[in-house]
Amino acid sequence: MAVSPYRVTPTRIGNSSGLRLPAAFYRDHPQFAGAAGQVEVLDDSTLLLRLEPEEQQQGEAEEDTLMLGLFLDFLSRQALTADQGPVLYTEAMAADDDELLAGVTVEAADEPLGA
Questions:
Q1: Contact 11, 18 (CB under 8 A)
Q2: CA–CA separation, 48 vs 76, rounded Å?
Q3: What counts of helices (H) and strands (E) characterise the chain?
Q4: Which residues pair with 18 in a beta bridge?
Q5: What is the C-alpha to C-alpha distance for residues 106 and 36, in angstroms, rounded to an integer?
Q6: With a threshold of 0.70, does the pTM exceed it?
Q7: pLDDT digits over 41-77, tens only?
Q8: CA pair distance 68, 114, nearest whole angstrom
């Protein structure tokens, strides 16, 4: 593959800062349109950008969906075959959960599952 340098420019994306790639990059490499990836800092002036083509991400999303489906099937079978039957989630249970999770911070995912 021929080396083609592309100029990137800084941009604001919502409340975050980002780098904008030119349209020529996506014309020359359409497999990266909509791709996510990772950035690795090599030194003070060099970054390595590793993009995952959309097809790879789609496969991972399908695997996540499959695993979630299998887990929910398992929970349904357990609830339906339990001696006392399904247990209703009560306000008291919700209050206990809130107390248990008080002070716990969760980092937001970059993308929602299945997106």
A1: yes
A2: 45
A3: 3, 4
A4: 11
A5: 21
A6: no
A7: 888 888 888 888 766 555 566 777 778 888 888 888 7
A8: 10
